[in-house]
Amino acid sequence: MTTMIGVLAAIFSTICWIPQVLKTLRTREVKDLSLGTNVMVLTSVSLWLAYGLSLGEWPLILANIFSIICVGTIVLAKLAWGRA
């Protein structure tokens, strides 16, 4: 049961990034996105990944790899197409 809660949390906390990533890539509009906030989120999910790796917990590992890809895409888009 505990693993299932972790899996569900991982799924919901990662898929929430998909609409923002798709909209950002489609429109290249980044002026309303906060670089600081997204860098902090990227840092936090990177630390969660390190934590998940140290525990060997696959829900944490997979969710945070996916989140790093999504948030990293947003950060790179902000750097490429917008001003901080």
Strand content: under 5%
Count of individual helical segments: 4
Mass-distribution shape: elongated
Counted up, domains total 1
The whole-number mean of residue pLDDT values reads 94
Sketch the topology as an H/E string, one letter per element: HHHH
Largest sheet report: none
Number of strands: 0
Specify the structural class: mainly alpha
Termini distance?
43 Å
Q: How big is the Rg? A: 14 Å
Any idea what the CATH architecture is? Up-down Bundle
* Estimated helix fraction: over 70%
Work out the oligomeric state of the chains in this entry.
single chain
* CATH C-level label: Mainly Alpha
Named CATH topology: Monooxygenase
Which residues form runs of ≥5 with pLDDT under 50? none
Task: Describe what this molecule looks like in 3D.
This protein is mostly helical and about 80 residues long. The protein has one domain: Monooxygenase, CATH 1.20.1280. It has 4 helices and no strands. The chain has helices at about 1-15, 20-25, 35-55, 60-80. α1 runs parallel beside α4 and α2 runs parallel beside α4 (about 60-80). The longest helix is centred in the C-terminal third of the chain and has 24 residues, at about 60-80. The protein is elongated and about 45 Å long. The model has no long low-confidence stretch (mean pLDDT about 95).
